[in-house]
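#onboarding

Welcome to the new folks! Below is a worked example of what a typical request in this channel looks like: someone posts a single protein sequence, and someone else replies with the predicted structure as tokens. Don't worry about understanding the tokens yet, we'll cover that in week two.

Example request:
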Amino acid sequence: MSSYPDSYSDPYDDYEDLFNPLRTDRKARKTRKGKNKHTPKKSQDQIVAELADAVGLEAGFKTTYHPGLFEEGWLLESLKDFFNQHYISDVLARVKGGKEASVYRCQGTKAVGGGNVAAKVYRPRMFRNLRNDAAYREGRGVLSSDGHDVNQSVHADRIQRAIGKKTAYGRQLSHTSWLMHELKSLQTLYNAGASVPKPFAASENAILMSYHGDDKMAAPILQDVALETDEARDLFNVVLWNIELMLRHDLIHGDLSAYNILYWEGKITIIDFPQVVNSRGNGNARFILERDVTRICEYFAEQGVERDPEAITHRLWKRYVAKSSRDQKADESRLTVEEWE
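Example response:
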């Protein structure tokens, strides 16, 4: 017995009938050809509203900023938790676009103090293609979305295999871990008094933090600022004080330069911490520290402040990494910014 259904329909039947070379009835052929219906072009607000509904945003979400086609979906998906948790009420502008992440100025709610806040949204798969990622990951755990080290779980071996083989699950774990290391570093350093943004919350692909600038412009990066020598000397001391503060907490920025420091109204703010390095558990730590210090010295040398990066690195390493914790605490009690002058 045949296993085919009695009313089997071949999807090519209509095409055969329509383009039969023996058929000459052009009028009949025309009747088969459907007319193109005019579809009104959707407005940007309609598109955003549909996307917001698709990703699960609560009613009332809006974006004064109109995202481009390349960012609409992942932007709303990344920010939906911040809106649904009542941290933001609007996306006002994109203030920075980059190959790794984009930063948006958002309207904050009372939960985050109101006013402007910054949402750093990572581009899809950004961390999956980071060069030399193992050099940064060495000595630090793999963090889950709740900030816990998954290496302490009963599935640690399976997790490490997934990361090593770069499976879809492993790549997602790595992505989450990079973002959570940035969040936890910001929390630790902000609470310690460092010149970093105040972190408010994180989603799977974004971090919400304090905004630096005003309604007209975001704080420029230090690389785009020319300083008077006296101000440059003061800010150089502040940057090095922050590097030292990081080392007190066993942290090295890992990508510090004048491109990752904001300048606003005479003050600096250090940003971008996903590649933060554990100073005591990473075999590349001293090299990475010296690279950070050298880049900072190079910028300030252009502003008239000459310093020896090798000597500074040696002093920092000896004080905070290559000595006992008791001696380190004694040094911390005497630490002042003026020591760098």
